[in-house]
Amino acid sequence: MGVVVLGGGVSGLSCAIRLREAGHAVQLWARELSPHTTSDVAAAIWYPYLASPKERVLRWGQRTLEVLHTLADRPETGVHMVRGTEVFTEPVRDPWWAPSVPGFRRATPGELPPGYTEGYAFEVPVIEMPRYLPFLQERFRALGGHLLQREVHALEEAWSVAPTVVNCTGLGARALVGDEALVPIRGEVLRVSPSPTGQFLLDDSETRGMAYVIPRATDCILGGTAEVGVDSLVPSASQAEGILARCRRLLPESTPLNVVEHKIGLRPGRPSVRLEAEQRADRRVVHNYGHGGAGVTLSWGCAEEVCALVEAGR
Ligand SMILES: Cc1cc2nc3c(=O)[nH]c(=O)nc-3n(C[C@H](O)[C@H](O)[C@H](O)COP(=O)(O)OP(=O)(O)OC[C@H]3O[C@@H](n4cnc5c(N)ncnc54)[C@H](O)[C@@H]3O)c2cc1C
What we know:
It is built from eight helices and 15 strands. It is α/β, with parallel strands linked by helices.
């Protein structure tokens, strides 16, 4: 069956691959391709951040963790398993997603930076998106898929070439299908090189501000910010200063941080991920957007559910 996948970020590419593997004739159309998508900006650590509903997120996240684990340490994928800690200054319970992560445990006092009293220790994939997205594109092409840079203004444009459309347009779905529940959640990150650490460190404190340090093969991503409803893509010097100051809380004093890049992305925020099929006469659209701060974390689980919904409509 012919399928057009709209969107060339992590959601669209993962769906296109699974659909092609299932034997469908697949074209992927995207207004922007890597390195110009939001997915390119992602930090990107496996972590279910700003995405709902919990039960589906757990299932999608767990499946994605399994797939990313199998891709880890094949150098061409850009995926690595990395250990680290999420740290707190007050008592906390285990997080709701803990059952998804094999080996999750409480951190020992010796694992905590000065000033922190509690923590979780775990190992999860870190995905170097500027390498991972081209890897996904190559995998899709090698499976015989066709990838085109093309913007659409209505689903009908895609239905004119295939009866089934998969809508992975991220924040673009707001205009494409008129979904006003979608809002930008602006995020800023700094890329530093060399990496100041081999382990990730996360502090999601609401009072002191979010900080994360995500080491990759040759560099490290420092974050972050999450500004709901803000859609500016202009870098902010004061936000960058704030990120550096907050990340320094997590690192040994006087750690050198050499900033080589400053990136901004608009997370596709939505009260819940929209993953559902919509039938319009003999045409079908499967929506898969609104993954907030967890599009990478949920990508394979969502792609497999999308594939099942496409098959169910045959
Ligand atoms: C600073 C920051 C840090 C993040 N960190 C993490 C992290 O650590 N872990 C994690 O899992 N997630 C993280 N995220 C979230 C993650 O980046 C997103 O959830 C994810 O990229 C969404 O992917 P997507 O493919 O759905 O959308 P996008 O990557 O936005 O892709 C949408 C695609 O649709 C195309 N498109 C849009 N409209 C149209 C149209 N009308 N016609 C044709 N094509 C169209 C676009 O051009 C693009 O190709 C982070 C995000 C930011 C900004």
